[in-house]
Structure formats: C-alpha cells, structure tokens
Amino acid sequence: MFDGFTCFETKLDGGVATVTMSRGEQLNTMVPEFWDELPALVRELDATGEARVMVLASTGRHFCAGMDLSVFGGRPQPDASPSVIRSNLRSNVLHLQETFSALEKARMPVLAAIQGGCIGGAVDMVTACDLRYAAADAFFCIQEINIGMT
What's the whole-model pTM score? Predict the structure, then answer.
C-alpha cells in the first residue's frame, strides 16, 4: 500500500501510522520527490481511515536539513519575460506550501518526532503538525534569514 516512495517508509500498526523520512545519509533533505510524496502519503492515510494518528519521524543523525536546492530547478529560459519567471516561481511556491498544508488538513492528529537538526523548511513542516516532540539533542535553525529570504 505504501510502497514505491523515494523519501519515506510508512508502517501502520494498531492505528498508528509512522511515516519515516528515509534519506538519513542525505540528512533527509527535501528533494523534488519529497514534495509530491508527503502529501500523497498523508492523503492515502486519510482516505483509508485506518490510522488514528500519524507520527512523522526520520532516520539518520538529523531530523531534516531542509530544502534541497534542486527543488528550484535549473536556470529560467533566457527569453522568458520577468512576469513568466515570477508566475512560475509563484506556482512552485504554492505547490511546496500545499505539501505542508496536507499535514494541517489531515483528519488525524500529526505528531512530529524530532531529533538532531530541524533546519530551514523542516521548521515550516513541523509547525504544520499538531504536536512536536523534540529529543534532548534536537535543535532548530532557519538559515534563510541570513540571506534575506523569507
């Protein structure tokens, strides 16, 4: 049921769905596949009605190192107008936001189990969860503010 995902492993046991980010070697960065897989998993769990709660966890030494720069793709077409570039950026940002909105819209409570670093976009992700539990070694960091990105 939850096979074929690149970034996640899912286990359903006794009404508890554990969705685990499975790219620990890569610090669970949010690669392009992440943004499609997470809302698909949440919607699938929502639709089956088997899960009473979802736990978002991870593997590796950090919970998640945030967004992978590959999400923003390559350079825009050289002949693209500024309005087309802005429109494409807006569309991409709305798609990214919908990934986290899926967590908020889930019928079951979503708990985040955080260890190690919770960095950048991962902070946005865990704030979309209903509850956050942090291990003693957890830390939170938003580097985007250092480059003026909001």
Answer: 0.86
